[in-house]
Amino acid sequence: MNKVVVIDYGMGNLRSVAKALEHVNPKVQVKVSSQAEDIRAADHIVFPGQGAIGAAMHALESRGLNEILLHQMGQKPFLGICLGLQVMMESSEEDGGTKGLGLLKGEVKRFPDPHYDANGTHLKVPHMGWNQLHQTREHPLWNNIAQDSRFYFVHSYYVTTEQENEIMGTCDYGLNFVAAACLDNQFAVQFHPEKSAADGLQLLKNFLDWDGQG
What we know:
With about 210 residues, the protein is α/β, with parallel strands linked by helices.
């Protein structure tokens, strides 16, 4: 039986992600845990998140999860959700400047406030609600998801990177930002698939079917 661990670092909508994973594939064994042995035993790893990156990085360190997580992320299919994408970057402007895990080259920046689109319309921060995602590269996690499908976002900070080969999808909210990124067996998205109706559930199903290749 495929085992999936949802990383519990004391923050985020852990149970809703776990339930969504169980829904798309009732045969998988989903466990919400911060225990090293559960992370080692898992076939797939999910890092969901919401909240501030400073607190998240502190929680990982205080629970002794940094080293084991980094090691296992290099070996198994990994999915980062929302804050789970941001912590993979080198640094973030949030909380006065916070160092990330550094798995992906790039920075997390805050949306300008006030913030406007190309027509001069004021855009609220945080970016909250449904928005189109443009797939920039083919990937197994996009299987059966149409180009420019809509996903649900909730965030005040966004990812930037000059590593175009790592960008899997982009979104426009007054500026173009990275909505999905991938490096080898690690895939991460800024939106919440567990809140994104059929397309979000399809992405979770694709992840559970993914062997970390391609």
